[in-house]
Amino acid sequence: MVEPPRADILADQFTHHLRVERGLAANTIESYSRDLARYFDFLEKRSVYPVSASQVDLMEFVSSLAGKLSARSIARNLSALKMFYRFLVSEGKIENNPARLLSGPKLPRRLPGVLSIEEVERLLSQPDPATWRGKRDKAMLELLYATGLRVSELVNLKITNVNMEAGYVRTVGKGSKERMVPMGAQAREALTDYLNHGRSASLKNRSSSYLFLNPRGKPLTRQGFWKTIKRLGLTAGIKKELYPHSLRHSFASHLLEHGADLRSVQMMLGHADISTTQIYTHVTRERLKRIHEKHHPRP
Fold this sequence. Notes:
The protein is mainly alpha-helical. 56% of the residues lie in helices and 4% in strands. It is globular, with a radius of gyration of 23 Å.
């Protein structure tokens, strides 16, 4: 009797599939790998191989997560399992998909935190243009608000990704999809100042192809950017909780408020599905409702 394939071997093959064939982001692959490891631990305690698991095994695993994880995390675990079992079917390792009929918890639509235009202006005015770090921070914030890039896309930008003459940024987003996003005059001005008078100060005669650097001349990390925006938010006196994607959310919401069409905003954000972009129309409607309640004589 042939012994079923080991869980760790299946996990390695699945991870390779996600990275090479699906082109998923490293953070997504890492999350799915953790979710799968949790599932494998559950099966091991039951002496069940992943290729032998039934729909009942999966249902009981998902039930075991209740009270331990948030609804959103449980939904992601379920998504990882569905993708894993589709992979096993496509590879001919199993005939029937036990995860096919599973459904996860219903998630509330999560409206992103959006800054007002006045709050964005205050945030963008915080970096000190007299220092190289201030020039860098100013260029980063202006570019984020002008383009709506994800923070991971921002810190991975190379100098060759920016066309200053045409005023475009070329970036590779989720699923390895490339897109071109226009940037405004103020972002170009801040970026030019950083490139001409700030970036070389962190290099100290070293070389790097990355656009935004830390004091050691290395590429800035997502964590480094996160610390920067939190610090600048405090000095700007912004009371709202800031997130790494606060400027991305504000970019989308402000465009829609000023008449941009949904499809164009979808393209600039790099959303595969327009339903993801539609969440910003909810944000805009909520804001209009608050304005109406505050200023209408008979709210």
